[in-house]
Write a structure and sequence with these properties.
alpha/beta
Length: 105
């Protein structure tokens, strides 16, 4: 079992989002932050709720999960938690603050 997540760039994340079907884009910010804009197709689990909600929201532990937050700190923590929960295909692409592509407002 893979026990590490991978750090990828925004460009790499965008390529995956545009070209792959079976992926989860996971936003781990708080609800009020999500209202400021989010990446289209994202699912939302605040960082402090990952242990309680991950299996319900993302039942397939082998699915590719692309994780982001506001600046990159919480996405890294979320990736560590997901790995501990048994997810094996986890990618951290940092913060939406630096996302150069379109977001939903």
């Amino acid at each position: 079992m893979n026990n590490e997540f991978k750090k990828i760039s925004h460009v790499e994340a965008k390529k995956i989002i545009d070209n792959e079907n079976d992926i989860i884009i996971l936003d781990v910010r708080e609800p009020e932050e999500v209202e400021e804009g989010y990446i289209d197709g994202a699912v939302f689990i605040p960082l402090d709720k990952i242990e309680h909600m991950a299996y319900e929201v993302i039942p397939d532990r082998k699915v590719k999960i692309l994780v982001y937050c506001r600046s990159g700190r919480r996405s890294k923590e979320a990736c560590k938690k997901l790995i501990r929960l048994g997810y094996s295909n986890v990618y951290d692409f940092g913060g939406i603050m630096d996302w150069p592509f379109e977001i939903v407002m």
